[in-house]
Amino acid sequence: MSNISDMIEAFIMDNLGDDEHLDISRNELANFFNVAPSQINYVLSTRFNYERGFLTESKRGGGGYITIMRADEDNSVWLHGILDRLNRDVDFRTACYIVDELIEKKFMEDCQGDVIKSAISPQALSNPFKLENRLRAQILRRIIMKNKAKKSDSD
Amino acid sequence: MSNISDMIEAFIMDNLGDDEHLDISRNELANFFNVAPSQINYVLSTRFNYERGFLTESKRGGGGYITIMRADEDNSVWLHGILDRLNRDVDFRTACYIVDELIEKKFMEDCQGDVIKSAISPQALSNPFKLENRLRAQILRRIIMKNKAKKSDSD
DNA sequence: GTATAATAAAGGTCAAAGAAAGTCAAACAA
DNA sequence: TTGTTTGACTTTCTTTGACCTTTATTATAC
Predict the structure, then answer these.
(1) Which member of A123, A129, A143 has the closest CB to residue B118?
(2) Domain extents for chain A?
(3) Average pLDDT of the residues in A58-84
(4) More confident residue, B57 or A130
(5) What Å value separates CA A75 and C1' C30?
């Protein structure tokens, strides 16, 4: 426990308690621990990332904030496998299989699968920098993490 | 947390209630919240704009006023307006307003809106080429067109 | 009395300043 | 070498203020 990042992590965990999410002010927290504000980002990205079961959201400007959310506790092997695949690029066909699997396993509704397929279609993701497969993986991963967080919310 | 613009927004929403429109005096309101009058304009343009389903009208000079109205337009015109908006880049906040409006107007389900918001979040669309707003608009467009096609299919 | 000019009372616009959070790379420590 | 810490610079959203335009009322001229 000698480094400050660990202390900040502990502090956040403590304040989170059993809650699903926690709002913090980056500057206040940095001030409290007497560190550069960007260190808070460092802690968030190394400790409160999706691999560790967390998601974050934020707003800049006056009245800005950072929200830290729990994404998951029950890490089913199956879902873990899918998320793992989504760390790499994914083409449209493979992505559709994944979506179908998510529906079949009751992870999401039919109607949700439809909009997702639209969202990750080659047409939706066309861009001049050959980023299509990368973006598709990112989008799917985000959708899954969010959906997971919401599911455990209503449990 | 909590900035004044959000408080003013809440105040206006509160006073609007279920009504179709509300008349306010810019100066009075600014005075009440102890802010520059132009901040009222800021709140109106960021919170009570077309994407959020509002229209405003005003008159200057003695006895001037601002009217805030709920915009209930004919569906085709309305959807056309949204698609038009999606020909340009769209930031996340605006996109969320659009999705909320699509849900409110029964164009799609709640649960669909959730996955869409995940799909178009800054996190999902982060990329090294500053394409975020462009991609977001593309994705939303695609989803709407598809959904529309499906709806008119079953009519 | 009517026409016109001046004044006051609104609201509008825009840009600068301020207040957050984000990024990235260099320095540092284990 | 890997993980931490810091700081300079960037982006986004909010707040403020100076200046502009429109409308209503009041004063003045004829």
Answers:
(1) A143
(2) 4-70, 76-154
(3) 78
(4) B57
(5) 32
Residues of chain B with pLDDT under 50: 154-155
Indicate yes or no: CB of A126 within 8 angstroms of CB of B138: yes
A81, burial (CB in 10 Å: exposed 0-12, middle 13-18, buried 19+): exposed
Closest by CA position to B142, among listed B105, B97, B106, B90: B90
Instruction: Name the band, by pLDDT with cuts 50, 70 and 90, for residue A155.
Output: very low
Nearest to B149 by CA among A105, A115, A58, A33: A115
Strand C: which bases are under 7 Å from protein Cβ?
A: 8-15, 18-25, 30
The alpha helices in chain A, defined as continuous H runs, are 4-16, 26-33, 37-47, 77-85, 92-104, 110-119, 122-125, 132-153
- The count of C-alpha atoms lying within 13 angstroms of the C-alpha of B111, restricted to the half-sphere facing its C-beta, is 13
Closest residue to B3, CB basis, from A62, A120, A142:
A62
Residue A127 to residue B135, Cβ atoms within 8 A: yes
Interface contact A118-B2, CB threshold 8 A = no
Q: Write out pLDDT tens, residues A132-146.
A: 777 777 777 777 767
What homologous superfamily is domain B4-70 in, according to CATH?
Answer: Transcriptional regulator CtsR, winged HTH domain (3.30.56.130)
Task: Determine contact, residues A17/A107, Cβ cutoff 8 Å.
Answer: no
Round to a whole number and report the distance in Å from the CA of A38 to the C1' of C23.
9
pLDDT tens figures, B91-109: 788 888 888 888 877 777 8
